[in-house]
Amino acid sequence: MGGLLAYLVSLVIMAGIFAVFCLGLNIQWGYTGLFNIGIAGFFCIGAYTSALITLPMPTGVYAQYVQQVFGLHLPFIFGLLGAAVACGIVAFLIGIPTLKLQEDYLAIATLGIAETIRLIFNNEQFLANGPQGLMGLPQPLQNLVSPMNYNYIYLVIVVITMAVVYFLIERAIRSPWGRVLRGIRDDTLSAAMSGKNIFHFKMQSLVFGCMVMGVAGALYAHYTKSISPDVFTPLYGTFIMWVMLMAGGSGNNKGAILGAFVIWGIWIGTSFIGNLLPPLLQSRAPYFRFLLIGILLEVILIYRPRGLLGEEKRISRMSD
Amino acid sequence: MAELFVYGIIYGGIISLGAIGLTLSYGIVRLANFAHGDLMATGAYVALFMVTAVLSWIGIPDYTLGPFSFGWRMVIAFPVAMAAVAFVAILFDQILYRKLRMKDSGPVIMAMSSLGAAFILRMILLILWGADSLFYRPGFMRQAIDFPLQITIMPDEILILAVVFVLIFLLHLFLEKTKMGKAMRATSDNQQLALISGINTEHIIMWTWGIAGALAGAGGILYGIDVQLNPYMGWDLLLPLFAATILGTIGNIYGALVGGLIIGVVQQMSTAFITPTYKPAVAFIIMIIILLFRPKGIFGGKN
Q1: What is the DSSP string of B121-142?
Q2: CB contact (8 A) between residue A115 and residue B119
C-alpha cells in the first residue's frame, strides 16, 4: 500500500471525526439556534470517559506513574456509549441555569464549563493522571490486522459511526420533534404560543447534541491512543468546528459533513505555509494558519452566512 | 487574608476597566464581545512595542520613575496604547459588526463574529511575539512597601489602583456632563426611544467602541505591569470580565465596577483555599450562581 493512500486515510479519519462533532453542533445551532462554544469541554469529557471505561486499572510498575479514578477495561462500544451519557449529564446540568435566559448566556456558560473541565483534568491528578494524561488507549479489533494497516479498520469504524449519527439526526429532524426545534429557532414566541415547552425542547436539543460530541470525542481518543488536557484548548477544540459548520452550512447535515472535510482539507493543505516563512518564524506557522481560518469565518459570516450548502427548503416528506 | 483582599481589589480594579467596556458595548451595541479580553491583551502588547521598540528608536531614555518598576517611556506608551486599542475596536466594528448590523444578522451571529475577531487578534499577537510570557522590564526587582496587618504592596500596585479610579472618574464625568455621554446612556437605556429622539446611533456606537477600547487597553497594560504579558492573557481575563458584567447587571457601568471588584476579591481570596490555577473556574462558579438566583445581576431588580 502506498504512502499517499495511507496519508489520505488518516486525513479522512480526522475529517470524519470532526464531521461527527459538526453533526452534534448542527443539532444545537443549525436546528435550534443554541450557541454552544464549549465544544472543547464535551470533547474532553467524551475522550476521558471512554479512556477510563476501556483502559484497565494500572498495575505493578505502571501504578506508580499513572493514576486513574477507575479503569473498567470494557470493550470500545461501551466507551462510546459511556462518553455519550457523561456528556449528556453535563449538558443537562449546564442547561438548567442558562436555557431560560437569552441566547448569549449559554455561550458564556459553555465557554466557562469547557475551561473549568480542562482545569479539573489538569489539576486533579487522581482523576486521569493530570497534565501527563493517559496513554495506550485500546483500539477496537486491533488484533485483526497488523498495526501498519490498522487505520483502514478505524476508517470503517469512523465512517459507520458518522453514517449512524447522520441517519439518526436526519430521522429526528424530519419528525414533528425536529419541526418544533426549527420553530423555536425561527420564532420562539410563536412556538411558545402553540403550547410548546421551549425550555424542554431546548434542553433535549442541547443534551442530544452534546451526546453526539461525546461520541466524537471518544472516536478521537481511540484514534490518537493518547490524550492530555492540552488537546482540549478552546482554540483547537472549539473554534475550528464552528468554522467547519458555518462553512458547510448550518441547518444542513450534509453541509456539516462537507464543511468538516473542506476545512480540514484547507488546514492540511496550508501546512506548506511553514516552508515559506523565514526559519525564525517557522515555529509560528500554525498561528498563520489559524489566522487564515479566523479570517475565513468572518468572510463567511458577512458574505455567505448560509455556508456552502444552505438549509434544505422542504424537510418533511409529508408537506408538499 | 488581609493581603489577599488588597490584591483582590487591585486585580478587581483591572477587571473593572475591562468589564466597563464590555458592559458598554453589551448595552449599546447589543453585542456580547468575546474579543474584549484580547483587546486588553492588544493594549498590553502595543505598550510593549512602544517601550521596547518605537521609543528606543526615537532615542527617549528610560529612566526609572521614582519607586515604580517602569520608566518615562511607559508614561508616553500608556496613552498611545489606549488610543491604538480604541482605533482597533472601532476598526473591527466598521469592517465586521457594522456590516452584520446592516444585514440584521442577529445577536448570536454578531457574538460569533467577535469570537472570530478574538482569534484574529490573538493569532496576530502570537505571530509577532510568540507564546512565551514577557515583561516590560525583565529581571527588575521592585521594592515592596510594608503596611500594617502584614500587608506588603508594590508601589506599582498603588499606582494601578489610582489609575483605575482616575479613569473611571473621568468616564463618570464624561457620561454625566457631556451631550455625547448623555446620549450614550439614553441609547443604553432604550435604543428605540433614543432613535426617535434623533440620536445618531451609528455615531454613538463609534464613541462606545472608542471608550471601551481605550479602557480595555489601559486595563491590559496595568495587568501587564502587575503580572506579565502573555498572548493568552485575554483568554484568562474573559471569564472574569463576563462574570463581573453579569454580576453588575448588563449595561450598568457602576455595576461593572462593583462586579469587577467583587470578582477580583473572591478570585484572589479563593487562592487561600484552593490551587491558584482554579482562578478562572472561581469566576465561572460565581457567574453560574448569579445566573441561577439573580440573572439580572445585583442592580437589575427582581427577575
Answers
A1: HHHHHHHHH-SS-B-SSTT---
A2: no
Contact yes or no for B291 and A111 at CB 8 A:
no
Single-letter amino acid code for the residue at B41 = A
Q: Band of the pLDDT at B303, cuts 50, 70, 90? A: very low
pLDDT tens digits along A73-107: 889 999 999 999 999 999 999 999 889 888 888 88
Average pLDDT rounded to a whole number, residues A185-193: 87
The strand pairing partners of B71, in sequence order, are B64
- Specify the pTM: 0.91
pLDDT band at B236 (very low <50, low <70, confident <90, very high): confident
> Structural domain boundaries of chain A?
7-234
DSSP string over chain A: --HHHHHHHHHHHHHHHHHHHHHHHIIIIIHH------HHHHHHHHHHHHHHHHSBPP-TTHHHH--BS--B---HHHHHHHHHHHHHHHHHHHHHHHTTS-HHHHHHHHHHHHHHHHHHHHH-HHHH-GGG-B-----TTTTSS-GGGHHHHHHHHHHHHHHHHHHHHHHHHHSHHHHHHHHHHH-HHHHHHTT--HHHHHHHHHHHHHHHHHHHHHHHHHHHS-B-GGGG-HIIIIIHHHHHHHHH-TT-HHHHHHHHHHHHHHHHHGGGHHHHS-GGGGGGHHHHHHHHHHHHHHHHHHH-TT-SS---S---SS--
> Are B280 and B19 contacting, i.e. CB atoms less than 8 angstroms apart?
no
**What are B18-72's pLDDT values in tens digits?**
999 999 998 888 889 999 999 999 999 999 999 888 877 887 777 777 778 788 8
Evaluate whether B259 touches B297 at the Cβ level (below 8 Å). Answer: yes
Question: All 3 cell numbers of residue B49?
Answer: 512595542
CB distance B127–A119 less than 8 Å? no
**Residues A46, A114: Cα–Cα separation, whole Å:** 12
Residues B123 and B192 sit within 8 Å (Cβ to Cβ): no
Q: How big is chain A by its Cα radius of gyration, in Å?
A: 20
Q: Would you identify the CATH topology of the domain B2-293?
A: ABC transporter involved in vitamin B12 uptake, BtuC (1.10.3470)
- The confidence band for A148, taking pLDDT boundaries of 50, 70 and 90, is confident
- Cross-chain residue pair A109–B291, CB shorter than 8 Å: yes
CA dihedral B68, B74, B76, B77 (to 10 degrees): -150
Q: How far apart (Å, rounded) are the C-alpha atoms in residues B76 and B99?
A: 35
Report the share of chain A in percent with pLDDT over 70. Answer: 96
Q: Does B295 touch chain A (CB under 8 A)?
A: yes
A 69-128 → B contacts, CB under 8 A: 96-98, 101-105, 107-109, 111-113, 115-116, 119-120, 122-123
pLDDT score of B169 more than 80: yes
